[in-house]
Design brief:
Length: about 140
């Protein structure tokens, strides 16, 4: 999935940051924090050519950062995909879209990290606010 790595590098270089909130702002993607159900961390929405990332306001900051990076992945990699609709109304597997968004988030948040500075993969994840379930993307 080098196209994801290429896209992450392109965005980080263009905007001189790997902060997902700042990149979203520069791409004119509005980020809102709302009280969502505890099972919903966030979602990406395209409405009338306006892009939105909605994040559960009850999450810790580190998780909000990861969620923003993940949803930014959807906005950049699959801007017109409506995953809730696909999940509910079709047989289309959205797993590929979620895997790509997760890979995008991990690569964005770890863009300039030197892995030799960490003892384990879990240290890398913990110290960068990335959920342990993303270990497979390292």
């Amino acid at each position: 999935m080098s196209f994801i790595s290429d896209k992450v590098k392109q965005l980080a270089h263009k905007y001189k940051t790997n902060d997902p909130f700042e990149i979203a702002d520069r791409l004119n993607i509005l980020v809102h924090f709302l009280p969502l159900h505890s099972e919903i961390n966030g979602f990406y929405k395209l409405e009338k050519r306006n892009k939105f990332i909605i994040i559960n306001q009850n999450l810790p900051h580190e998780i909000k950062r990861f969620v923003c990076a993940h949803e930014l992945g959807h906005a950049v990699l699959h801007p017109r995909a409506n995953t809730p609709f696909l999940r509910k109304n079709t047989l289309y597997s959205i797993n590929r879209l979620e895997v790509e968004a997760n890979r995008f988030a991990v690569e964005l948040l770890l863009d300039d990290k030197i892995f030799e500075d960490y003892e384990t993969k879990f240290d890398i994840l913990r110290e960068n606010g990335i959920p342990y379930e993303m270990e497979r993307f390292l």
